[in-house]
Amino acid sequence: MSIDKDLLDQLMKGRSAGDLFGKDGVLAELTKALAERALSAELEEHLTEERADPPAEGASQAPNRRNGSSQKTVTTDSGKVVLDIPRDRNGSFDPVLIAKYQRRFPEFDTKIISMYARGMTTREIQGHIEEIYGIEASPSLISAITDAVMDEVTAWQNRPLEPCYPVVFMDAIRVNIRSDGAVSNKAVFVALAILPDGTRDVLGLWFQANEGAKFWAKVLNDLRNRGVQDILIAVVDGLKGFPQAIEAAFPQTQVQTCIVHLLRHSMSFASYKDRKAVAVALKAVYSAVDAAAAEAALTDFEESDLAARYPAIAPSWRRAWTEVIPFLDYPPEVRRLIYTTNAVEALNSKIRRAVRTRGHFPSDEAAAKLIYLALNATSQEWKRSVREWHAVKSQLAIMFEDRFPMA
């Protein structure tokens, strides 16, 4: 619905563009007028509903009615506004627009949460609000608004999951968290799943308390307890103890190590002048037509001068061999999807951007809160459907037959 131009001209009569904003600007006046009009309409509806209901036994027979108004100062996007809140005689009216004990419009809280999700510190948010809106927002107010998100985080972390996921990527980011007076660098693991319709979803966040298979058993048992019965392919970055833990929780799952991470690890051993040659030799391994050809290419590399010069490279591929070769069974469309954890790394880069401004977090919960908000703020980007999903889905449906979940 468009606003009548004559009405707008009337509102702007005798005013300049600079009079739109600020404490006494047109927007503040308009917010006050519209809010009070809406509150009046809410009260009228409330009174009408009460009149339609028969009074409870023993209650006064006199109909409820208006009983003046009281003033309340409310924080809005354009500053503070003093509203005349209408009252009823029985005191049963609780407005929806601005509840009895509410002092801020919901949109104001949303803006603070949005700034927090984009990595702004409490001090930066405080300065921004004071500069733009002329409002002093205390650090405790900002913390209270963002802390209210924790109930959402808890519900999200415990929500029921799908019975089966075609592909799940696992990767970690590092965050500094204070504990017992000392700051430690903690790993936060993120599970990014591909759903049967090709869209993506983050299944959860896990803060690493211990190393190896015990931690992974906890993560996988959490997924099982939330309803996951099967994962077709799990793509990981050489995570210690993960293959053994996933075999125990999901025996049919195919574990694929991230080839890109394995390559980076290999390149770290080679001198700059030999890196191109090493990359070419290893490409013959991971781009082979099948596992037998890949084995032959790795054997050729092991017998080369390059392998003799850098003896740590070939054994690193041999140690991970059973997790290297699964993707070689698939056509190019599927290979491009599962040979790297780039999908979850791209997501993690957005999270890192948000946490970068924090020196450290006071607790795991504080870090989880910011990461959750950062995920929500960028969800339109990372939830997009996988490219060529139709072709990938067809291949996975053939390879996994009745295990593939139909969207």
TrEMBL record:
Compositionally biased spans, kind Basic and acidic residues = 44-54
Q: Which family does it belong to?
A: Belongs to the transposase mutator family.
Name assigned to this protein: Mutator family transposase
Species this protein is from: Salipiger bermudensis (strain DSM 26914 / JCM 13377 / KCTC 12554 / HTCC2601)
Please list where the region (Disordered) is annotated: 44-81
Q: Does the keyword DNA-binding apply?
A: yes
Keyword hit for DNA-binding = yes
GO biological process terms, alphabetically, are: DNA transposition
Q: Provide this UniProt record's keywords sorted from A to Z.
A: DNA recombination, DNA-binding, Transposable element, Transposition
**PANTHER family per UniProt:** MUTATOR FAMILY TRANSPOSASE, TRANSPOSASE FOR INSERTION SEQUENCE ELEMENT IS1081
Quote the InterPro entries the UniProt record gives. Transposase_mutator
Compositional bias of type Polar residues: which residue ranges?
61-78
Single Gene Ontology MF annotation: DNA binding
Q: What is the lineage of its organism?
A: Bacteria, Pseudomonadati, Pseudomonadota, Alphaproteobacteria, Rhodobacterales
Q: What does this protein do?
A: Required for the transposition of the insertion element.
